[in-house]
Design goal:
Number of strands: 24
Distance between the termini: 66 Å
CATH superfamily of the largest domain: Glycosidases
Number of domains: 4
Structural class: alpha/beta
Shape: globular
Bound molecules: alpha-D-glucopyranose, magnesium ion
CATH architecture of the largest domain: Alpha-Beta Barrel
Helix content: 25-40%
Largest sheet: 8 strands, parallel
Number of helices: 20
Length: about 675
């Protein structure tokens, strides 16, 4: 192309553009103009900015323009597709982050006994706040605090006088708010004990119900009964959990009211819509304060049958007037009544309203001991469509404490896992404020192996304060008994497991400077946090090490669990996660020293495993042969091996393995695991 021609084009371009704009003509007019200005015999005009459609089409069809354009187009389509596929794969393969209540043990604080800050001999909220470092040391992120509401303390706080106030023994609302803020600052979650089933007889609602002030008249369960100088003839044979008739005559109202626990704990009437609303309002009150979770006390007792028929006797031959103990009746009409789950589902829905912000999930667990009828516990998990508790407390392992054996451990673990609805999250309890201490019940020799079992099983472990150092039952003489249940029946006294936390070998174990409400156990000089922290190996150090190991190793906190072996002495299971290079074999001894050959039980597991942890010493790294795994009495081992073909997909393990949420591990995406 000559320079003249190109000049011509430039002039022409200006001419066309101006003409087009001035005349406001469309493409056809532009074509006319083009015909006018193109010199006859001249080549096609060169492309230029603002060219009309026809010019554009003329060039766009040419291979040198079309090809790059099509290549670019397909490149864009393909890379978008690839991006979508990669994103979907990453999402599908990467593990869902565990929620906070799944990622850490739940530690139970009994506030009377944890730490006293004002030296009245009883623990309090400020005391708990001063001990937050202990949770950090244990790598515990979720703390359940037994009740601290205003209460006459007949059942040490499980008799609530005001659901919206803090008892002065424990401090003030400001102390509570400070504690909660301090816990949140340290990344700790606070789970409150919540007692909807009953109030104290000092609660305003009961006082107003007693004198028939509306709308409170039917807030509790009242019924006519005979009261003569010889005593009360109750409406039926129902017996309180704490013994004797569940009915109490009230002289003011001249009727009997129902109490499934102490007579100072009247049952709320959950068939009354106002009671339902009041309790939901209380839940909202605490959620608005920022509480992270609730433990629903005595859930199965919430409703009673309206017909008030006698409950069947366990021994039909027993003279009915002699039936005074709870276990002498089948509690068909006072527990797990139709409608109970709807009520808890309602509470869950309220909690969901407060769970919408990221990281603010409000957790719900239920206390509902099922006495061997496990399907009753499982119902608290809700259904795939209707949410209920995140988990009901699993008390099954407690049975192990009275009959230690490898087979026992196997069967109790399996009972929960095989009955649990698919995909739900297990949990394990071996101690709480209603039980005796592990050390006294199972024996000192087994405390470490029990803690190892708890922290290596899949699901959330629950630890009652003091079990991390192996505290023992304290002796309480009959005249010193504080627990109302113990006053009714010494053999049921719960004081021995509620003695002050042993922090150090100083006076009163550093729990308080004054006489303590229950005696400090005399073993506090050696069994205490400080001493055990400084020892090279101790129950406390083991607890911490296990808790850290659980967090650090994805197979342990979220992987598959396969039941591998059990006999009288030994219980073994493994933990593995698809794609994770390491897997763990846990071998626990609940009987006499024993050597087991696990090589034929475990296809594809290498013959040599590396000791990651033992209950008995701080050492690790030694090689252990799969054909000869030796454990002493009460010894537990965590053994690590290079994972090959997953055991859970082996046909022989079809019914032996369990996982809550399937997840694969990709080392390149390790960052996803570490950020959960
Ligand atoms: C639950 C508590 C227990 C309390 C009872 C009555 O069983 O664990 O301590 O006495 O409820 O509230
Ligand atoms: Mg009730």
């Amino acid at each position: 192309m000559s320079s003249d021609e190109s000049n011509g084009v430039i002039e022409m371009k200006e001419g066309i553009a101006n003409a087009g704009f001035e005349d406001g003509q469309d493409g056809d007019a532009g074509a006319d103009i083009y015909e006018e200005v193109v010199e006859p015999g001249a080549a096609h005009p060169q492309p230029y900015a603002g060219m009309p459609k026809e010019v554009l089409l003329l060039y766009s069809g040419q291979a040198r323009y079309r090809l790059p354009r099509e290549i670019l187009f397909w490149l864009t389509v393909l890379s978008t597709l690839a991006l979508v596929v990669v994103t979907a794969t990453v999402i599908a393969l990467s593990p869902r982050c565990l929620s906070w209540w799944q990622a850490s043990p739940v530690y139970q604080v009994y506030p009377r006994s944890f730490q006293d800050s004002d030296n009245d001999g009883i623990g309090d909220l400020k005391g708990i706040q001063s001990r937050l470092d202990h949770f950090e040391y244990l790598n515990v992120k979720a703390v359940w605090i037994s009740p601290f509401f205003k209460s006459p303390m007949k059942d040490f706080g499980y008799d609530v006088e005001d659901f919206r106030e803090i008892d002065p023994i424990f401090g003030t609302m400001e102390d509570f708010e400070n504690l909660l803020a301090a816990m949140h600052d340290q990344g700790l979650k606070l789970i409150m004990d919540f007692i909807p089933n009953h109030t104290s007889d000092q609660h305003e609602w009961f006082k107003l119900s007693r004198n028939r002030t509306e709308p409170y008249t039917d807030y509790f369960i009242w019924h006519d009964c005979q009261n003569t100088s010889l005593g009360t003839v109750p409406p039926n044979n129902w017996v309180s959990v704490f013994g004797n008739s569940a009915w109490q005559y009230d002289a003011e109202r001249q009727q009997c009211y129902l109490h499934q626990f102490l007579k100072e704990q009247p049952e709320l009437n959950f068939r009354h819509p106002d009671v339902r609303r009041e309790i939901t309002d209380v839940i909202r009150f605490w959620l608005e304060k920022g509480v992270d979770g609730l433990r629903i006390d005595a859930a199965k007792h919430i409703l009673e049958a309206k017909h008030l028929r006698d409950e069947p006797q366990v021994n039909p031959e027993q003279p009915p007037e002699n039936v005074t103990a709870y276990w002498q009746l089948h509690h068909d009409y006072t527990t797990t009544q139709l409608g109970t789950h709807e009520i808890i589902q309602e509470w869950r829905a309220v909690m969901d309203e407060y769970s919408r912000e990221p990281g603010r999930y409000r957790f719900l667990m239920t206390d509902s001991y099922d006495g061997g009828e496990i399907e009753k516990s499982m119902m608290y998990y809700g259904t795939p469509l209707v949410k209920e508790a995140d988990f009901p407390f699993n008390f099954y392992l407690v049975e192990l404490l009275d009959a230690m054996s490898g087979n026992g451990a196997f069967s109790l673990v399996n009972t929960w896992l095989s009955n649990m609805p698919k995909g739900r999250w297990p949990n394990w309890v071996i101690g709480n404020h209603d039980m005796t201490r592990l050390s006294s019940r199972a024996g000192k020799a087994y405390v470490n192996v029990l803690n190892m079992l708890l922290l290596t099983l899949p699901g959330t472990p629950s630890t009652y304060y003091g079990e991390e150092i192996g505290m023992e039952n304290v002796n309480v003489t009959e005249s010193e008994i504080q627990d109302p249940l113990g006053k009714f029946n010494v053999s049921m006294n719960r004081d021995p497991g509620r003695s002050p936390m042993q922090w150090s070998s100083d006076d009163n174990a550093s729990f308080s400077k004054n006489k303590t409400w229950l005696p400090v156990h005399p073993d506090y000089k050696t069994v205490n946090v400080e001493t055990q922290k400084n020892a090279s190996w101790s129950t406390l150090r083991q607890y911490r090490a296990l808790s850290l190991l659980r967090t650090a190793e994805p197979p342990l906190h979220r992987g598959w669990m396969c039941l591998v072996w059990s006999d009288n002495n030994t219980f073994a299971f493994l933990r593995e996660l698809d794609g994770f290079p390491a897997a763990f074999l846990v071998v626990l001894n609940f009987g006499a020293a024993a050597t087991v050959d696990l090589s034929s039980a475990l296809p594809g597991v290498p013959p040599q495993l590396r000791l990651r942890m033992s209950t008995h010493h701080p050492g690790s790294g030694q090689l252990v042969s799969l054909g000869q795994v030796r454990t002493e009495t009460g010894e537990g081992l965590v053994l690590e091996y290079a994972a090959g073909h997953p055991v859970h997909s082996h046909p022989a393990f079809q019914d032996q393995c369990y996982v809550s949420e399937k997840a694969c591990y990709l080392s390149t995406m390790g960052i996803l695991h570490s950020n959960c």
